[in-house]
């Protein structure tokens, strides 16, 4: 099995970039070139660090350095909290409506 790899670079301004390669050797060659010759090979902007990792372990990095998976986890947690809040509100409305006699029996539709 030919595992793919990414070459990863962290630039002086904190930005992180990566490219996918067909082999580890290709990714290492890109990292070596950038480390030795800088951005575009012009020897003006050099990275803070470079590294290689298999694609299955590689992940997109946000500009603040957090992996995208953190954002997904935060979004899911937020969505769950909204659902819980809506569920509590619905339960309160149902309770008040039943106390006021506003609920009527609605037949279930058979699927």
Describe what you observe in this structure.
There is one protein chain. By secondary structure, the protein is α+β, with helices and mostly antiparallel strands. Helix content is 41%, strand content 16%. It has helices at 24-37, 68-99, and strands spanning 5-10, 16-21, 49-54. Strands 2-1-3 form a three-stranded antiparallel β-sheet, covered by helices on one side. Strand 1 and strand 2 (16-21) form a beta hairpin. It is elongated and about 80 Å long. The two termini are 47 Å apart. The mean pLDDT is 76.
What is the compact description of this entry?
With 111 residues, this protein is an alpha+beta fold.
Structural class, judged by helices and strands?
A: alpha+beta
Q: Treating each run of at least 4 consecutive H or I residues as one helix, how many helices? A: 2
Distance between the termini: 47 Å
Q: What Rg is obtained from the alpha carbons, in whole angstroms?
A: 26 Å
Strand order of the largest sheet: 2-1-3
Biggest β-sheet: count, sense, barrel? 3 strands, antiparallel
User: How many strand segments?
Assistant: 3
Tell me the helix content. Answer: 40-55%
H/E order of the elements?
EEHEH
* Overall geometry: elongated
- Uncertain regions spanning at least 5 consecutive residues: none
Oligomeric state as shown: single chain
Strand content: 15-25%
User: What's the overall average pLDDT, rounded?
Assistant: 76
